[in-house]
Amino acid sequence: MGKQMPVESEGLGAIRAGGSIIGRISGVNDESACLVEHFKPTQYELEVLARHYLENARDIEFYGRFLGASGSYEIRMHPFAYRRLATIKSVLGEKRLQEAIARTEEKWDEIFKRAEKDAKPCKACGGGERTYNTPADIGSEGYCDACDPATQGRSDLSGLPVTLTEEEVDAVRQRVEENKRRTETHISRMSGGPID
């Protein structure tokens, strides 16, 4: 196995916070993410990988939107998945990629449609949406993220199992913003625009 990491892993490394490591994600930023020398995937294998990465990305989007769930895995895997999709698109072409992921897209569109239909407005402001009852440590049933009494006054990183300094919190936030920028740049460079 080679030691070269894929370009899609750029900026998605784990970080040290106190005595802990946050964000070590298998296949994204660890030893298993290294490229394999002398192996070229078939078109079929690329299509399977495209569906795999789309499944990961849409799953993260669903849980983020309807449960407010996000963490170190999601902020790394989501951009990595879309970066890999853009790279696969640059090899397969737009038409072949769309054919490969069409059923996966249709499945997730239906899941999102059903969730939207079942979503209820926030008890406090009438906006925002929560589809499912969530455990108390994630939020209060019936409230959007902005109005949730369980999360009022907490930073978006306060649920981490370690205590972070303000500098570490700022570093994490900066990394998230940098990853968004890198993902947009990678997608534009590889495919001429975002994947629809």
Topology, please?
Blueprint: E1 15-17, E2 20-22, H1 43-67, H2 72-92, H3 94-118, E3 120-121, E4 129-130, H4 166-191
Antiparallel strand pairs: 1-2, 3-4
Helix pairs in contact: 1-2, 1-3, 2-3, 2-4
Share of residues in strands: 5-15%
Unreliable stretches (pLDDT < 50, length at least 5) are 131-139, 153-162
Helical stretch count? 4
- Fraction of residues in H or I helices: 40-55%
Shape: flat
Instruction: Write down the secondary-structure element order.
Output: EEHHHEEH
Q: Count up the domains.
A: 1
Task: For the record, give the distance between the C-alpha atoms at the N and C termini, rounded to a whole number.
Answer: 34 Å
The counted number of beta strands is: 4
Explain this structure:
The chain is mainly α and 196 residues long. It has one domain (7-118, 153-190). The chain has four helices and four strands; from the N terminus they run E-E-H-H-H-E-E-H. The protein has helices at residues 43-67, 72-92, 94-118, 166-191, and strands spanning 15-17, 20-22, 120-121, 129-130. The strands form two sheets. A two-stranded antiparallel sheet has the order 1-2. A two-stranded antiparallel ribbon has the order 3-4. Strand 1 (15-17) and strand 2 form a beta hairpin. Helix 1 (43-67) packs antiparallel against helix 2, helix 2 runs antiparallel to helix 3 and helix 2 (72-92) runs parallel beside helix 4 (166-191). The chain is flat and about 55 Å long. The two termini are 34 Å apart.
